[in-house]
Amino acid sequence: MARLTRRKFIKATGACAALGTVASFSPVSFGKGAKGRVIVIGGGYGGAIAAKYIKKADPSIDVMLIEKNTQYVSCPLSNEVLGGERDIGSITFNYKAMNQNHNVKVVHDEVVEIDAANHTVKGAGGNQYQYDKLVVSPGIDFRFEKIEGHSAAVAEKIPHAWKAGPQTTTLHKQLMAMKDGGVCYIAAPPNPFRCPPGPYERAAQIAHYFKHHKPKSKVIILDAKDKFSKQGLFMQGYKKFYGDTIEWVSGADGGIIEAVDPDNMTLVGQVDEYKGDVLNVIPAQKAGKIAQVAGLTDDSGWCPVNQGTFESKIHKDVHVIGDASIAGKMPKSGYAANSQGKVCAAVIVAALNGEPPGEPSYVNTCYSIITPDWGISVAAVYQLVNGKIVGVKGAGGLSPMDASAETRAIEAQYARSWFKNITSDMFT
Ligand SMILES: Cc1cc2nc3c(=O)[nH]c(=O)nc-3n(C[C@H](O)[C@H](O)[C@H](O)COP(=O)(O)OP(=O)(O)OC[C@H]3O[C@@H](n4cnc5c(N)ncnc54)[C@H](O)[C@@H]3O)c2cc1C
Hints:
GO molecular function: flavin adenine dinucleotide binding; sulfide dehydrogenase activity
Organism: Candidatus Thiodiazotropha endolucinida
Bound molecules: flavin-adenine dinucleotide
Enzyme class: oxidoreductase
Number of domains: 2
Domain Flavocytochrome c sulphide dehydrogenase flavin-binding: 359-427
Protein name: Sulfide dehydrogenase [flavocytochrome c] flavoprotein chain
């Protein structure tokens, strides 16, 4: 069977991405001498895709995925767990197929050190791994220090649930245990952060749960910002389905949180204090810890990269993709990470075959589910202009305001089908 050339690979990944469907290639032949070894750190929306697509494009490249957890819990659709519409099992995946179907060597270890000069990474147990090219996709970490009294330990009591997993379950249990007539505060973070529409979808999902189980309760969003993604569409959906159950307080109106007092279940704003029954504080964010430790970040806390290749501007042969990277106009989303993973895979395959990188194209769509039958979205296609990722004018856009119920129901279906496709792309 013919080997997938780099040009065909870019074309195929671009086309699949644009359709929002699963990219599926025929298996390609093995047996060539190894061209090099690629290590991918982090098996999430960016890393799992980069690992799989490098191997698919050129099986003669050895690919190792180092992921600290044996299971991956998806943030996309985790808000539906809070809304009571799905269980956490439905968003939990494992890495068996990566190894069995794609011949990617999966190692469960936490990388604690990257030695870019010697092209090695070190695991928590002391194991060392050698690479020719490294892909780093560690997601995010939190700037707890921006809120007085906050810490990783406090977040076990007032969960952020911004990395899906045990904290999603904790927050869900707290909502279930809350009395009817209670108040849940969501403190939304400043830009830039993972999933710009996420806190507002979460508010809708919690209101959905309240409407059916605790109708006298309220969700109040205390925002560090004065505007947010898909704001008009969210506000319209809130009003239509949840009346005054959801309230949004902008930064200018006192939404910025300066301190937390978990013992008294109180958030301290610049003007007022807010005592709640459930507190969901989503802190300001930065690139995942290993990116900080490895010196891949700049003063912003995120990783500067060549936006055409995702190669770090700081360390050669190290590529950073996904939320941790500074990727021009692309938001920090799972779909963006998937698209970047494919571009990065094509670049690395080309480099290890002695070819120049192709011209990249990137895509993103973010769906939000306001009720099980009411979805909204924002979509964009991106290109590289003067070294920066920018939106292609006229491509994508927001769901229309005042759309019919039928259109919104189709968008909610698209959201679930997008999730099925993108997670199949990662884990089957
Ligand atoms: C509530 C919520 C809803 C969301 N909804 C959507 C949505 O609808 N659509 C969308 O496109 N995006 C959505 N997102 C955003 C999406 O989850 C992220 O943008 C995406 O996960 C980023 O991918 P990533 O590869 O950068 O990081 P991740 O997916 O977080 O993957 C990082 C991986 O790296 C591993 N790791 C980290 N450090 C190490 C280390 N040192 N050693 C080994 N392994 C390591 C982690 O365990 C993790 O598995 C949502 C986010 C949230 C919080």
